[in-house]
Amino acid sequence: MLVKRRHRDAATTGRLSQIVAGMAAKPLDRRSFLRASGLTVGGLAAISTLGAGMTRRVEAAGFTDMSQPIEVKTNMCTHCSVGCTVKAEVQNGVWVGQEPAYASPINRGTHCAKGASVRELVHGDRRIKYPMKKVGGEWQRISWDQALDEISEKMTEIRGRSGADSVYLLGSAKFSNEGAYLFRKFAAFWGTNNVDHQARICHSTTVAGVANTWGYGAQTNSYNDIRNAKTVIFMGSNAAEAHPVSLQHILEGKETQKANVIVLDPRFTRTAAHATEYVRFRPGTDIAIIHGMLYHIFENGWEDKDYIAQRVWGMDQVREVVKDYTPDVVENISGIDGATLKRVAEKFAKERPSTFIWCMGGTQHTVGTANVRAYNILLLATGNVGYEGTGANIFRGHCNVQGATDFGLDVGNLPCYYGLGAGAWRHWSRVWDVDYDYFVNRFDAVPAKGGRDARTPEQNMNIPGITSTRWFDAVTLDAEEVDQKDNIKAMIVFGHGGNTVPRMQDAQRGMDALDLLVVADPHPTTFAALHSRTDNTYLLPICTQFECDGSRTASNRSVQWGEKVVEPIFESDTDYSVIYGLSERLGFADEMFKNYELVQGKFGMEPTAESILREINRGAWSIGYTGITPERLKSHMANQDKFDLVTLRALPDAPEEIKGDYYGLPWPCWGTGELKHPGSHILYNTNLHPMEGGGAFRPRFGLERDGETLLAEGSWPVGSEIEDGYPQFTYGLLRQLGWDSDLTAQELAVIQQVAGSDEEEAMDAVSWSLDLSGGIQRVALQHGCVPYGNGKARAVAWNLPDPIPVHREPIYTARPDLVASYPTNPDRRQQRMPNIGAVVQQDVVDRGVSNEFPIILTSGRLVEYEGGGEETRSNPWLAELKQDMFVEINPEDAAARGIVDGGWVWVTGAEGASRARVKALVTERVNKGLAFMPFHFAGWFQGEDQRGKYPEGTDPIVLGESVNVITTYGYDPVTGMHEGKVTLCQIAAA
Amino acid sequence: MARMKFLCDADRCIECQACVTACKNEHEVPWGINRRRVVTINDGLPGERSVSMACMHCDDAPCAAVCPVKCFYTTDDGVVLHNKDTCIGCGYCSYACPFGAPQYPQTANFGTRGKMDKCTYCSGGPEPDMSHAEYVKYGANRLAEGKLPLCAEMCSTKALLAGDGDIIADIYRERVVTRGYGSGAWGWRTAYGDTVTV
Amino acid sequence: MTMFSKLLTAFGLVLALSFSAPMASAQINPTERSVTEDSLFEALGTAPVAGRTTIPDAQAGTLINDANKGWAALQGQTLHTLSIVAVVGMVAILALFYLMRGKIRIDSGFAGRTIQRFNSIERFAHWTLASTFIILALTGLNLIIGKSVILPLFGEAAFGTLSTWGKIAHNYLAWPFMVSLVLIVLLWIIHNVPNKVDLEWIKQGGGLLKKGVHPPARKFNAGQKLIFWSVVLGGAALSYTGIMLLFPGEAGTAADWQFYQTIHALVAAALSAIVIAHIYIGSVGMEGAFDAMGSGEVDENWAKEHHSLWVEEVKSTQERNTKQVATPAE
Question: Which pLDDT score is estimated for C6?
């Protein structure tokens, strides 16, 4: 074994080492650790400047004393959505070491820069240490009680004045599933649908596009499964920087399968560096490119005709549309020549299985949903969904953005995509054991204004709220324009940055105009520092997910249970506790928390994560979170090494309780926990029995369209007793099939209860997603059927603005000549707000903006930072690696402007005379005419250093200009996603 | 006896910097000291490759040759370590090292570099194995615990390999044969006078 | 910076080679095009392999610099040997000389009368220079040969402490050394301009080899001028390179620093050897010589034998002065 043997012993010890040896006797306990890390004065001062203080090992918080017992805790990385297991070694309540978690089939011990440095999060030198509020412009320390008392009073006051909808509840993809669910439930009890989170700005268009195509808004396969792919396309995904650990699977797959890895991206990314083919294109032209590929595919008959016939509806209409996208047209729009596209299309269609990976390069556009739809159509045309090695591998962003989306931190949904209809509200009322009318009473009545009809509270319950991309417009726009009782008056922001949405000048104005701003976060985000508010501004220290229990859902829908590693540090507290504290003061805690086990927390009572998950298990039928019990999750975490690397399935030697399961019970995990459904590694996979994780496309758009069936034809999952398509299961369908007799008496009783009567008609309507007993699901599965049905995917989504995607120029386009043929979507109202994209685009063309701002600006991620970046920029291990905000600029553009590598430049934006002072990174990575800026920076605003605006000792180590100062107007017509990837700018040496 | 080496498979390295922060994390390496770093060659161009570099623990280590106070020593595992009690911070090793491994806590001017710090292959220094004194000066001693360096253990794509030179060379060779390409065992020729041939 | 731009140019070259294929519609296969270590070594020759890194340390961008091994060998072996040869060699030569020639006596014995050879300012300058030089030389030599000479004697811990203090002393005493060096130049440069007298002195071997031979000399004979110029020029070289070593930021690239270090070590070894000879002749080597820098007063006979012309100059000046003093003002 590796025992170190030396040529010689230690040298005679000097004075220095004797002093050091004297210290060794004293093991570091939690108390002295916290003292050392700065709750007391002085410690922080040393770190506030990056001078000598930084160059010293302040206190050996990472020392593991081998003579003391080591506790090993398992949790997951709190950064991206890959879901890397973090193995923490804890001594005396201090997290002393981070060991590789080799057992995890997802990361196999590995991490990226962020994951390998998460231990620092609970050192937390720069964390918010205690609740604070602004008094006369100064931050002042207050107690939790005072903070929550004052906040709830002000919320109530605003509610009285402007209505419940005037309080905006911005949640977080960093919540645990339980936290996200609780926050959504909190919004319901408060009486608003103005509840959102980061999914809005990362994959809302994906969820909309994908769900509208084949049923569920989630990654169809998994990171691991990409090992099976023969062709992998990345389009608008820089996984090497955004999801580094996923590259482990992709590169190993590339090597062993000799797979084609094709990267289509405006920028030669670090992912592209490992591709077998790199294709550059003009940002914002994805649809033209995909249609260009489909043109070749249909032209040459490379499409999968059987698959289309059996499982896809409307492909012929697509065929007609793509005829217009000839190689010349596509080259003119995108810059990609026909031969290249033909080659890529042929590989994708013929060298199967093929998978298509996209991220925010595809989603953050005014055509985000349409982009996603185009990708889906390409996958469907080539028969690449629903099998191993295929699929829409959507790499989601934050660690729990999938879970937070699933649990309805979304202006248009209650938990689990039930929507906002009366049925959805009634379903969750039953689960929560609260009267439906209770919620009706909590909502505002909306008066008639702006030519729109008035709404009763009950109607208002069904209307999606304002998206997080527009909250500031909802503060500052004329009240007539905002389709709710009053403007937004209060922002309650849990774990969400303020620099990740475009038009930060407007966001700043919005922040200044609010009556109340509450930032609940481990770090002060841009929401705490961008504005010049003097009062009514609160900072609540929330702990990280390493300081509380809870489950989180990785991008591949695998759910993992995170154990509390250490107690919340300083005076920080859990999301659970703070939501409870607020609910208590707002008077609905008893109703809201009645199903939970409440325990004494750090500063008050809080519900246990397990008891929240159990409630989720009772209600989350629609996406099969019902089988994902805390017990099962915990045994998965305890037996990670028993899962196969590629199939994610528990190996034959696995213990009984996990035998046959897929790792993390990727949803849908049907039925109750007792059913022991293994989860669904690959969605819509007809090669497996539904009880083994098989499935089919979900028919959720009716049974037929234009006289054609929307149910699958000649395709069904293995073991299906119905050998054809079928609609979703209801009690009525069970009765028709004669399978109702398989229901137990208990199940039948619950179905009756849900139906509200024992009348046949009412009972017949009870579906698989409303039946709280799980009986309908159980019986369907028992007969080899998928509870939601077996339908066709839609190549034409008639309910979307573009049923078949068409190319539309970005609003701030560098090709104004194309706008006449490919204009942006017409203006409309959506999510209570006006969207005037077409007016803006016309103005951009008319004013010749692209002459004054000739460089296309796009944005993206860096590996060291995440999201708004406050947390990662506060971590010295990461911050050291990227100390300056920068703009990537092509050498030709740089030379023409006298810009040198590493020199300061001003980037000016096309709206509001916006500008940002950043460093130039002169590189061929971007083409001539294109610039790139990362979006993780904040703390400088148009040349002004805002360090002084952060409460002392909480300012992130690295500050910089935010790209979203420069980015401009533009919103997806379906989800309100912002345009983060294409705008125009000018760059000049500073 | 094992001869410990690092090998960075640049065709796997995606410059994710996990090795860098894993090192910082494991040893609480202060700001400004980079025991390991990632260098990207042909940055932004097709052909770009990144290499994670730290002390290569050379045969006939040049640092040891120039050290005025002979503070370097090589363990039986082939790991080149140094004694901070003896080190005078002269900086010579940093000029002798072909890999830029030696680091100093302070600015180099006026001889105020402080004690040299570098990658220890996660095997500490001359103090008793896994002692607090060893940790404070050199960081953790994983080798003594029977573990390999954390940078390699945590490498996101398993690009950075650590372990016995022959074994990791075999792993690398096998990869190159499987996939049909390889950009070389970066630094091996310089550190060991020989590279991995396939 | 210069080196860095050179590197970049070198890379441009490599890239130009690898991108000879037209970019337009040809397939870009980054995997196939990947740069390899072998191809880079071939293209770069001895230039370092470098790239971009994100930490601010500019040197961190250099991935592999094979040339450093060359300097390491030079520093670790060649300079080490040379320094030992220079110092030990000179000591050996002097020992041999002492055995053969013995102490050079004042042929005519002590006169008992003295004349002032160096005033207090001159002596102060000399001794400042001398003492700092000795410490600098010893601490400097320690860095090169201490590990093979002193370490075995003292043991590691003591040697480490010694060397640490030695390094501090070296860095700080360099400044008084440089100041006194300037002073010495100002005081003595006028006396050290080579002239014809020196030729004769050299022709006669300075009278060192034979008893009773005393070639004429002014205040400084050719041998002393040699020492002077060695110290001045060598000292200047040491000062300049030393400053560069102290401020590596100013020194330029690592290669520049290595160059300065090599010069510093070579000059130091040579000058140390020369100064050892100087010390020898000024102390045990020659009777009466030490007083020149000791009390400043030398025996008249010693002065006549070794600096006959200077004695005459001094005498005539004294006489003139005496006359002037004796003669009434009017």
Answer: 45
